[in-house]
Amino acid sequence: MGWRVFLLSLVFLAFSPRVKAQEDFRFDIGGGVGMTGYLGDADTSNLWSHPSWDIEALFRYILNPRWALKTNLFVGAVSGNTADMTNIIPDLEEYSFSTTFYEVGELAEFNFFNYGMGESYRKLKRISPYITGGLGVTLWNADGKTGAALTIPFGFGVKYKPSRRVNLGLEFLMKKTFTDRLDGDRLKDPLGIKSSFMKNTDWISTLTFTISYEFSKRCAACNYKD
User: Fold this and answer.
1) What distance lies between CA 129 and its chain's CA centroid?
2) Are 132 and 155 within 8 A, CB to CB?
């Protein structure tokens, strides 16, 4: 009799529905590659007239399905040429430049949908557009000189989960730099206009494809989570 009860118990355990442990991760790490654009004294209108490259490393702290904090490191280049401009710069011959920059930034991300995979009651979506913004510091080298300035990066993107831990992303950022020397000293205030938020400061844009991996389970087996 005892062995029959034991056998029936094994059959019941094998075929009974199981409550799957919730996998909710706290951190996300990855990187990406993309292209850069530039707006400044050597290009005042066409962001992509001289596209260049960028490489990104990223680390996210995932607060919840809607919010995340992201630390990123960008290494890239921007370039321009005054010969392509319709405006004429007084007393300046045609001038071209190529600058390598390094940027460390801290940004907040807001997903339009509850981003993730798993529990239907949380209405998680495998794909979500998002907006982002924050603060950063940019270092650069132009004309053999090194400089640093505060940066305000902001933009938007889209994330997609091909699997529970893996994220694919495409992000566009505009980076307002508080400097007019990103394109070299020769183009510092060439029009003699007093600096303002929009004028006599250089802008960088990045369009980057990323891949990242989530880790560190927040809760190995939870019955309820906000």
Assistant:
1) 13
2) yes
